[in-house]
Design goal:
With 157 residues, this protein is an alpha+beta fold. It has helices spanning 53-69, 89-102, 108-119, 123-135, 139-150, 153-156; strands at residues 14-22, 26-34, 46-52, 82-87. Strands 3-2-1-4 form a 4-stranded antiparallel β-sheet. Helix 2 packs across helix 4.
């Protein structure tokens, strides 16, 4: 089992983050799983999750900090330009789950609590929840259950 230049195992699936800066909506981020020898069932890239608009702007600083740590710099991205950057599996799973669980949320305090909870998850836990959200018959129920677990009821009042 070899390692790639970013320290990721060569047997790990390949992921990328696709970035676009819209004139009105601002930044839009999408996580995709790419076809590779490690995922032979994929014939085309598979959409994992995306986030844009108000919900992204509320946690954008967290995302940019995490992306910066792995060498993804989004500064100076021109309007209407699209770019794709490779991501390691751990970060892709965590961001994919975060994007899926945060996308429909509206309450700022709850959004912050859920983002902190997902950020604190380990690889296995994030992979479990993302797999449940992607491959279940009713993924909205899975995501709602995760939100209930991550939101502190004492802070809601």
């Amino acid at each position: 089992m070899g390692l790639t230049s970013d320290g990721e195992s060569s047997t790990a699936p390949r992921y990328e983050i696709r970035v676009k800066r819209h004139p009105l909506q601002g930044l839009a981020l999408d996580i995709w799983q790419c076809p590779s020898p490690q995922s032979p069932q994929l014939k085309a890239p598979l959409y994992v999750a995306g986030l844009k608009g108000r919900n992204l702007s509320l946690i954008e600083h967290r995302i940019l900090r995490r992306l910066g740590k792995v060498g993804v710099d989004l500064g100076g991205l021109p309007l209407d330009d699209r770019r794709a950057f490779p991501l390691n599996e751990d970060l892709a799973l965590n961001l994919g789950l975060m994007f899926r669980v945060l996308a429909p949320m509206r309450n700022r305090d709850n959004l912050r609590m859920v983002a902190e909870g997902v950020e604190g998850m380990g690889r296995e836990e994030a992979a479990y929840w993302l797999g449940m959200a992607m491959h279940r018959k009713h993924p909205r129920r899975v995501l709602m259950a995760l939100r209930f677990l991550l939101i502190d009821p004492k802070q809601k009042a």
